[in-house]
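Board notes (copied after class):
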Amino acid sequence: MLALEGITIGSLTGLWPELEAIDHSLRPQLEADCRYAGYLERQRADIEALHRDEAISIPPDFDYGAVGGLSAEARDVMMRLRPQTIGQANRLPGLTPAAVVAVLRHLKRDGADSMAAADRHEPPEALAGQIDVSRETMDRLAAYVALVEKWQQRVNLVSASTLPDIWMRHIWDSAQLAPLVPAGTGRDSRCRQWRGVSGTRPRGVVRCRTAPRRVGSEKGRVPADRHSRDRNPGNCP
């Protein structure tokens, strides 16, 4: 509580009378220690990260202008000297640890974005083995994805930023819920618990995965593309 602005030890003695025993000459220092403890902890974490990640390479063509939080002076030093690693950057004169940490975070974020982009381009067939589904089920899921992509242009069904990664972020994640759906009689009993679910709309994916086959048909049912269900492909028919 002492980290909150305006709160002092004197403010808390009504709740904890034992605090009155603290010497008045020590109170300002204790209050300052509590107030800045969070900042000091973050600084210690940043210093540990610099020591731990000294070997991380900085690309020769790294764009320091894209790093937020860098002062013009720090940006000029790095662009002029072009350190090859985080460790080299940390030993450059005129650079603060905060500037080097900003570069380190930018490098890590770029690496995470690159990995996400690689996952985003993973073909649907590569996910079939991960969720253990048949070719017929993959056809149903592909039809479901087509419906979502069609109606996403008119109605906000999923976050637009996740649409390029729909197979991983929505299909693969939701399909893992299928084993948790209790067996029941009739389609309503299987779908009831998914009504009202928004966002990723897992019930539509689960229906595609658990849909029974029609007699004389090689494929099970997929969410219908008509009337109000067009606008919400995850709805149960």
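Comment from the instructor: The domain at 54-121 is CATH 1.10.150.570 (DNA polymerase; domain 1). The chain is about 50% helix and 0% strand.
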